[in-house]
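A further point concerns the way the authors explain their paired sequence and structure data. For illustration, here is how one protein appears when written out as sequence plus structure tokens:
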Amino acid sequence: MGAGGRPAGRGARDRRRIGSGRRGLTGRVSAGNCFAARIADMRTAVIRIKVDPARELTPELLSERTDTFAAQAPQHGMEVFERPNDPRREMQILMRGDDGPALRSAVAKLCAETFLTSPESGPVTYISRGTDDDVRGVLAGFGISGDISRADSGDGFDVVTVRISARDLARIPESRIHTALEASLNCEVNIVEV
């Protein structure tokens, strides 16, 4: 078996889908390319925040403070994904991690210090790369866990099987879990009760 409980393939290589959608590329990450494998497995949160909800800043000052924020962001593990503009004062930040409230709090703190306003945090969502960490993240959102395995569908995409306890499936409808997993992974998902 390979890392994450997946069967070791040719030359102990690991199949990864790169990008989103059924048209996403299928790549091979060799055991020697550990950094690429680690990055692919990390969850990336998208934190949305209104940096100037009261519209106190002029467009010029908004742009200037956004530049300042973007320059500081990497030191805090953040990356500006979408900058605010004049009518729309919302910014989107990328951060790696699973703790949505903690990530949102860190972004709000840096925004308040940089923009000198009272930012309003929005929802936190996650970019899905179709990894086992994405599966675990979806399950954690329901307050459950499960064992994950993968098989090649034969056309270059994974079929993900998730084994979930009967006790958890009695609390949460299987259809809700299945829909959330398929939407996140964009691949075929089988749920097995154990």
Remarks:
- Strands lie at 14-18, 25-29, 44-50, 78-82, 90-96, 120-127, 147-152, 158-164, 188-193.
- The two ends are 21 Å apart (CA to CA).
